[in-house]
Write a structure and sequence with these properties.
Length: about 375
């Protein structure tokens, strides 16, 4: 899905996965194109069905071939696990995880994007061994409601609402929009909300968006505190452009807001110099990990908004991104995973590796004591 916008008419188009020609496989040279099939279009009905089945099978093979080619540049984080852990050796791994499409499946109703209990257990275990933060486009409260773990740090609204640890470095604690508060368990925390002044405007836009989309069946407008999401996954495809027109039309009247495009969702957010990449930097500083060269940040996410974080890790921090996708996409990530089940496996592998290296270090220390 892509959004092309001109001044008058935004157009919602189909997914921006990479074309075969970009992957070096021009469409007329694919290994199994429909034209190469043995049946003509004038064949009888059973043959037509067989023809259709063959085309589907070939398209599947074709897609898989494109994905395999793409993986040469973005290898599976599971297949490259030894390489990843060789970078991580003797370093503190800091984990940053997106929520929707990364820890939970993408579902028709965004209120039902629950994570499995097995995934929750994997995230909890990971957080027991590595500093771990969830960075989501959802409101902080909403994502906490889904994840239900207190061992983590949470950044909602694309990082515009961060609840972080109190052992915060002075430069972060001195930030004008960073305040000391207590969490639901009474623990002292820092709250960072760089877009706080936008709250009344966001609420106003939320109400207007509900009003102007109320007669389009399937639209779901979600208030994520510092941004508003307009989900159109369940809208008839013929109405997608109408959704875009109405959202852009409204936001024209709010020059301090902008619209970004995610997976079948339009997101209205404040025009401020803040994104998931900045949130990663802020959290690393909060955790006093930013000035050290023995830290390896890893960010796992599936959406365009995660690209800001991948880019920061690639260009400024010595870490790497892992894109969750089962289709080829342009990305700033270094590695890939196909879906949340592979994310779960990756988290479990990281914990196993951590436990193993910890036991090795213990054995080594015991040996040293014995020699001593
Ligand atoms: Mg996501």
């Amino acid at each position: 899905m892509d959004l092309k916008s001109n001044h008058n008419s935004p157009v919602l188009t189909d997914p921006a996965s990479l074309s075969k020609s970009r992957l070096g496989l021009p469409s007329n040279m694919t290994p199994c194109s429909p034209a190469a099939l043995p049946f003509s279009s004038s064949v009888s009905s059973p043959r037509k069905k067989l023809n259709k089945d063959l085309i589907s099978e070939c398209q599947l093979d074709d897609n898989d071939a494109a994905y395999q080619t793409w993986m040469i540049n973005y290898p599976s984080a599971l297949n490259s696990f030894h390489l990843i852990t060789s970078y991580a050796k003797c370093k503190t791994v800091a984990l940053f995880l997106d929520y929707d499409g990364t820890l939970s499946p993408i579902v028709d109703n965004p209120d039902h994007a629950f994570m499995s209990s097995a995934m929750r257990a994997a995230v909890r275990e990971a957080a027991n061994h590595f500093p771990t933060a969830i960075i989501s486009g959802r409101s902080r409260d909403k994502v906490h409601e889904f994840v239900k773990l207190s061992e983590l740090y949470y950044a909602g609204s694309h990082g515009m609402d961060i609840m972080g640890p109190i052992r915060i470095s002075e430069s972060v604690g001195d930030h004008p929009v960073c305040i000391k508060t207590t969490d639901s368990k009474g623990k002292e925390v820092h709250l960072f909300q760089p877009a706080r002044e936008f709250l009344p405007m966001i609420n106003e836009v939320y109400k207007s968006l509900i009003e102007i989309t109320s007669n389009i069946i399937g639209v779901k407008v979600e208030n994520n505190k510092f941004c508003v999401s307009v989900h159109y996954r369940n809208v008839d495809k013929r109405m997608w452009d109408e959704v875009g027109l109405r959202v852009f039309g409204l936001i024209k009247g709010f020059p301090r807001l902008r619209v970004t495009h995610g997976r079948k969702v339009l997101e209205v957010r404040p025009v401020i110099d803040w994104n998931k990449g900045k949130a990663v930097e802020f959290l690393l500083e909060s955790l006093q990990l930013s000035q050290r060269n023995d830290v390896l940040p890893i960010y796992v996410g599936d959406d365009r908004t995660d690209e800001d974080a991948f880019k920061v890790l690639r260009e400024r921090i010595h870490g790497f991104g892992i894109l969750v996708s089962n289709v080829p996409k342009e990305t700033n990530a270094y590695y890939s995973l196909r879906d949340p089940s592979e994310v779960q496996e990756f988290l479990k592998s990281l914990v196993r590796w951590k436990k193993f290296t910890a036991s090795q270090t213990e054995d080594y220390n015991i040996d040293l004591m014995c020699i001593g």
